Amino acid sequence: MDPYKVLIEVVKTANFTKAAENLYTSQPSISRDIKRLEARYNVKIFEFTRPTICLTSDGEKILRYALQRENIEQELWHDLKNDLNIIAGSISIGSSYTYGEQYLSEKLIKVANEYPDLHVNAYLMNSDTVIDNVKHNIVDIGIIEREIQDNTLDLACISQDEMVLIYNRQIGFDKNQVCYVREQGSGTRVYQEIGLTRLELHPYLVEINSNQVIVDMVKAGKGFTVISKSVLEKEPKEVLASIELDVFRNFYLTKHKDKYVDNNLKAIIDLFECQYYNDETKKE
């Protein structure tokens, strides 16, 4: 039992036995807790030379501390209870480039509308860097483009995406052109290689760590790429054409298994996961 609470109760009742009854414990236990305090500070807390127990001058100092400590704890409980439904402060998200460039802004707008006092710091990077930053608590949560097996991380699917091969419509598809791909470590790169294998293509690869620059190169007729179908949907149809690959990927929300989920983090996780379930319901 907390010896400071025991001290307060003993002083309040002026009786060890009554204090024990109020705290649902035994009188010897109360005595041991008082002795623990005396041993900790190397002082005597009570005078026993009078008819009733009386605090020594050192005991009065410890009592003042015990009361201050109890007040602070009561304030803490009060604040925690009042803040139970308050979403405010800041949170950090690390996102893969594709999700960040194509979908994240919609989520951030939703967060701003629903939780105006919660400020989200968003950072775009490839999936490997997102994973590393989540594991080292550099960001609170991450969004990656492939499933991983890591016993330090929790993973939840939040969205699905289709991959297509795109090329300049006027020039037409030429398998001898270069293929623009993302850098190693990018979740997109994994599915680009799957798509090329599906079509039995072995082009010369040029790495670019920006989806938008890759698309611009394809629009300029300088090559082709495998990329998210959502990218194609935002480009003029008369410029780009596509070949379906029947290649799909999921986006995953990830956090460290030991990450404390406070109100802010729970609100963000619920927003992403609920949005995915809502999208899936609409498809049925």
Write up this protein.
The chain has about 280 residues and is of the alpha/beta class. The chain contains 10 helices and 10 strands. The chain has an 8-stranded mixed beta sheet, sandwiched between helices. β3 (about 90-95), α5 (about 95-115) and β4 form a beta-alpha-beta unit. α1 packs across α2 (about 15-20) and α1 (about 5-15) crosses α4 (about 55-80). The longest helix is centred in the N-terminal third of the chain and has 26 residues, at about 55-80. It is rod-shaped. The two termini are about 55 Å apart. Mean pLDDT is about 85; it is low at about 275-284.
Summarize the structure.
The protein has 284 residues and is of the alpha/beta class. The chain has helices at 3-13, 16-22, 27-41, 57-82, 97-114, 127-135, 187-198, 211-219, 229-233, 263-283, and strands at residues 46-47, 54-55, 89-95, 118-124, 141-144, 153-168, 179-181, 205-207, 224-228, 240-256. GO terms for molecular function: DNA-binding transcription factor activity; transcription cis-regulatory region binding.
Q: What are the key terms here?
A:
284 residues, eight-stranded mixed β-sheet, 10 helices, 10 strands, alpha/beta, LysR_HTH_N, LysR_subst-bd, 47% helix, transcription cis-regulatory region binding, rod-shaped
